[in-house]
Structures are given as C-alpha cells and as structure tokens.
Design brief:
The complex is a heterodimer. Chain A is an alpha/beta fold. Chain A is built from 16 helices and 25 strands. Classes of the chains: A alpha/beta, B alpha+beta.
Chain lengths: 502, 143
C-alpha cells in the first residue's frame, strides 16, 4: 500500500526491541499503560537514555514526580541524569504538582504554556525522543476534564508535528481492565503497550505486551520482564528463534563409559537433562561433568541450588576432585544460592549475567527442581525455555538435573516442561533385585546420534561413578516396578554375579 | 509516654510563647512569607508593592480575555501597590519563567507574593477571585 516503511527506533530495553521487531515506530507516539508500580517510568526513562547514548537527545515531561525525585530514583540503575542534563542530552519539563501552591480555576484555558515549554525544550537539546510520564496525573491537576482531554490531544498533535518519537505513559487501576480510565488511548491510538504486575500464587510477575504497533509487525502476547539493576529487561522466550547452529563436536560427560553409551560423548552445544530420585547420583554426574570439562581445558560454571558450597566441594573432594583449587585457578566457578531468594525471572537474569561475565564452555545446574519449588508453573516453563535457549545460543553445553518425587521411577513435572527442549535425557533409577537396591542408568534420548539403549548398572564408590553391564530379564525399571519374569536358573546365577565386576 | 514527655525540648515552647505574646497573626504571616519565598521567591523590589502578580499568556483568545479582565479589575486599585507583569509563553526568552513557575495552562495568573503562591487558571471570568486576592494582600482601592 505505502512505500515509505515505518522506521523503528530502539528503546535499549533488552528483549523489548526483539519482540517489537526493532523498537518503537519513529516519529510516532506510543502509549505505555500499566498499574501503579508497573515500571512505566523506568520504561519512559530508559527509552530516553538509549536515545542519549545514540546521539538522539530527549525531553522528559513529568506530570507526577518532581525532576529531583526522578533523578534520585533512577540512580539505583546507575543512570546519571544530572550528567546528561549538563551535556544537554536530556532535559526535563516539570509539570508535576506543587502541593504547597494553591490552585484555582476560573473560566476557560488551554495548555498553550505546556506546549510552548515542550517545544522550547525540544529545541533546546535538539530532541528526537520525548517521554510524557504519566498523563493521567494531569487530570488530577485540573478540574475541567473535557478541556484536559482536548488539550492532551493538542499536545499529541504537537508531538507529531515536531517529528519526535514519543512515549506517553498512563496509569490504570486494573491489570486487565480498560486501557486507561480517562480514555487517553483515544488520542494516541497508533501504538499501545501494556505493562502488567500481576499477583499469581502469592508471587509478583511482571509482563509486557505489545497491544498494537500500527503499520508494523511485532511479537504478540505477554512476555515476562524484570526490573534489574540495569533497568528493564524483557525475557523474549518464544520469540527466541531456534537458529542455533548445531555442531557435531563431541565433548566428554566426565565418564568414559557414559561417553560410549552416548555414541562418543555429548554434543558441544546440547542440553542434557539428568533425572532421578534423591541419592541416585545426580550431583555426582554434575561433579563428573564439571571435572571432565576442566580436565579437557574447558571453563565450567556450576550452579548449586540444593547444597552449600562447602557441601559441594566436600563431596567433590571425596571423589578426588579439588574444586577449591580449580576455582582459585579460574577454571571453575561455583555459584550457590537459595532458590527462594529471588523470583525466577531474576534468577535467569543473574545466571545470564554470570555466564556473560565468566564465559564458560559448559554449565551445570543442580537442580532445576529446586528452582521449580518456589515458582508458578508458568514462570518455571518460561524460565526453562529462556535458560536453554540462552545456553544454546552461547554454544555451550548445559547439564541440568531434575529430581523425581518418588524414589522408584516416576517422572517429575520438571521433566514434563523440559524434555522436549533437551537434546539428551539420562535417567537414573533405583532398581530392586533380589532384595538389593541397585542403581540403573539409561540414555533415554540422544538427539542426532545413535546411543546405547540398555539400562545399565550404575555404581558409586570412592573414585566416582561407574557404568557397568546391562540389566537383563528385569522389566519395569523405568516405571519403578521392576519385575523378573521367566528367569531361567542360569540367568539368575548370571544376574547374581553380574555386579561382581572383575 | 511519660518518658517521652520528659525529653521534650522546652525551649521550643518558650519561643512560641514569646511570639504569641507579640502577635500571633504577625508570626503566621512571617511564616507564610518565609515558606513562599523558599529560596528564590519573588519578594517585591519596591517596598510599596503589596502584591506581585504574573499573568502567563499565549496568543490565544482566552489569554486576551484574561488580560482584559485583569486590567479592568486592577484599574480599581492603587497601581503603586501592585507589581503586575505579563509573560508571553511563546516568547523563547520568557519561557524560563514559565518553567520556574511550572505553568501548564494559559492563561494562568500567579500570585507570587505574598505567600503562599497561588495559581488561577483560566479567563478569570469570576473577577471576585482576583478582587479578594488583592483585598487580602492589603492593596488599597483607588480613592
């Protein structure tokens, strides 16, 4: 229809520009609505800071907080507004209420003064971007609501005339109600973004949704976001394209026998899920995976959400690995956290930032189930997708563990969420044979490679883990109900001696 | 509670008592003016001035109406006692004053002195508001 395609300007909000397919439409106004505390001001400010960094200066028109409060509030994100003002990259138009002043209305008025002040500010810093925060507050300052609506329409028109890209925020009372109580969307109809701060299972969950960006395409639906120490960060999840290259390079699992079962080792950029009941050897697998990588000169990053550092180190030492020394030498980084200390979105951001900083070749997370404990199903699913996509994108190997709720077999919810995303799944199970508890291991899935399909004996001793021979004539191991049927006496004899290796 | 009363600074009461002996209304006015002045409040340069008024205008019809109305009202009072100025917000040189006063609407009449600062937005259709303001500030009517 039209040949002049709408250009987009990046907001600098990580992840948002991805779902907005470039950013906000250039030269247009975008309405950002949300309830109190939904990070509207952060959005509006971050948009201007990104502009300032790109040489597109900005004007912040504040109707709610005073410039002094704003400067102070965003210091926590490391944003030095004062410096930008001195460099004439940003300036405020203060339209915030002054409670110490008395206000009276008598007769008709327009917003000529505000328009003139905005125009002067835009001219002063040669602004390309402008934020108005939050427009609903103007309705509180003036009695004549019809005039305010008419005058805001005039401001929107003035912004268009000036050719600036604008973010106009508006507060609403309900996360799922009408877009704004005053019908502000009527005059900024082109582009609408909704920020939500929803209470779900006693947990706050922030999401962002692009309702419309007229004339341009964008990702649809709600995306979780977090307000971190660097400002707003959107987690684009499903918008992450599955464009990771796959490699045929194999890496060691840390165990020679397991490598053989997997057809020569894990793939370098694959996600491996190790699932088993408590005590089946998941943490040992993590330890072996970590130590095996380091032995090959790789850098390893391990997250422990179930044990303390000391416990993890002590266990590793028991199997002959000096993790303390490896960490001192910079080959290893072990991060231990209580899963409950922060919401999953923040865990994800933290994991990402540690990965970016440490640049490991492989990462292990022990266990995903611990993280799942304190979260809602939905946010956990998003976390897993976000984490696996990120790990693959970095072309790292990731080994995640999941704890099954029952000792004998069964599957965990963690598995349900993650199994399709994982490239390999290794099951660890208890096997009861003739009055003895043994451990079994099987490679259930190994994407893109032939693998051993046996259920093998898995033993743990002072030197670590060992994968032995296959269980024969025992069925139902994985389901947790092992039964021996029609076993000829010689087989019973074979089974009895099967585990007496060498 | 009794512990707290013991720690009250009694010098505070002394000050209030001393002031109330002199003139309570005088103290209130003093405080009001001090608050209104803040750091850079507009105290009249001319000691004769009893009130400082600023009318912010644009090139709109509303602004013209407000200005005419204000001039008509002021004409009844002693011009010596009124410090009246007009600021055209569309004039880039004058824009800084609108910023300082945080003006959104035009026309807006600002009473900068005596405190507290007061805004009257609109065409001043109700002239009584302005008259009361001048009377309260102690501006004398023309003889």
């Amino acid at each position: 229809m039209t040949t002049d395609k709408i250009q987009k300007v990046p907001t600098g909000i990580f992840g948002f520009d991805h779902i907005a397919e470039g950013g906000l439409p250039e030269g247009r106004s975008t309405l950002v609505v949300g309830t109190a505390g939904s990070a509207k001001t952060v959005f509006a400010m971050q948009f201007l800071l990104e502009g300032a960094a790109r040489g597109e200066n900005g004007v912040f028109v504040t109707f709610e907080e005073s410039p002094a409060d704003l400067r102070r509030n965003v210091l926590g994100f490391g944003w030095d507004i004062m410096r930008l003002e001195e460099e004439r990259k940003l300036c405020f138009v203060d339209a915030s209420p002054r409670p110490e002043e008395q206000r009276i209305e008598s007769g008709s008025y327009d917003f000529g003064a505000l328009v003139a002040r905005i125009e002067a500010a835009v001219k002063k810093v040669n602004a390309k971007r402008i934020s108005l925060d939050s427009i609903g507050a103007v309705f509180v300052q003036f009695l004549d609501q019809a005039s305010v609506r008419r005058e805001l329409y005039r401001i929107a028109a003035a912004l268009k005339r000036m050719g600036v890209t604008a973010v106009i925020t508006s507060e609403r009372s309900d996360d799922h109600g009408p877009i704004s109580p005053q019908g502000v969307e009527e005059f900024v109809t082109d582009n609408v973004i909704v920020l939500r701060n929803i209470l779900e299972d006693e947990k706050r969950r922030r999401t962002i949704e692009i309702l419309k960006l007229r004339g341009t395409s964008h990702e649809k639906g709600e995306y979780p976001f977090s307000v971190s120490h660097k400002g707003m960060v959107v987690i684009p999840l499903s918008a992450i394209q599955l464009k990771q290259r796959s490699t045929t390079i194999r890496i060691t699992s840390g165990n020679e026998e397991l490598d053989k079962m997997c057809g020569g080792g894990f793939f370098r950029d694959s996600i491996i899920l190790v699932s088993g009941a408590t005590g089946t050897g998941k943490t040992l697998m993590v330890t072996a995976f970590t130590a095996g990588g380091i032995a090959k000169g790789e850098r390893c990053l391990t997250f422990c959400f179930e044990e303390s550092r000391e416990q993890f180190f002590r266990n590793a030492a028991g199997w002959g690995f000096d993790f303390e020394k490896l960490e001192r030498d910079g080959h290893l980084r072990v991060v231990t956290d209580y899963p409950e200390i922060m919401p999953l979105e923040e865990h994800l951001l933290r994991i990402k930032s540690i990965i970016e900083e440490f640049k490991p070749n492989r990462i292990a997370v022990d266990s995903l189930s611990a993280l799942e404990r304190g979260s809602t199903g939905r946010s956990f699913r998003e976390f897993v997708i976000g984490l696996t996509a990120f790990v693959k994108h970095q072309e790292m190997a990731g080994l995640f563990t999941a704890t099954t709720p029952t000792l004998m077999g069964g599957s965990s919810i963690t598995e349900a969420h993650i199994s399709t995303i994982c490239d390999s799944i290794i099951l660890l199970r208890y096997v009861e044979t003739f009055g003895e508890m043994r451990r079994g291991l099987t490679v259930l899935k190994m994407r893109g490679s032939p693998h051993d399909k046996d259920i093998r004996e898995f033993t743990i001793d002072g030197s670590g883990m060992h994968v032995g021979r296959a269980f024969r004539n025992v069925s139902g191991i994985i389901s947790g109900i092992p039964t021996q049927a029609n076993i000829p006496p010689e087989e019973i004899e074979r089974l009895r001696t099967m585990f007496n290796e060498e | 509670v009794s512990l707290q009363t013991e720690t009250v600074d009694f010098s505070l009461f002394d000050n209030v008592k001393a002031a109330s002996k002199r003139d309570v209304s005088g103290l209130a006015a003093m405080l009001r003016n001090a608050i209104a002045r803040g750091g850079d409040g507009e105290e009249p340069v001319d000691p004769l001035h009893r009130v400082t008024l600023v009318l912010y205008t644009s090139d709109s019809l509303y602004s013209a109406r407000a200005r005419a109305m204000l001039e008509r009202i002021v004409a009844d009072y002693d011009p010596e006692q009124i410090d009246l100025s007009f600021v055209d917000v569309t004039d880039p040189m004058a824009g800084a004053r609108a910023d300082e006063d945080g003006i959104i609407a035009t026309p807006t009449l600002v009473k900068a002195f005596p405190g507290p600062k007061m805004w009257i937005a609109g065409t001043l259709d109700d002239g009584e508001v302005v008259r009361r303001l001048l009377d309260n500030a102690g501006v004398d009517k023309k003889q």
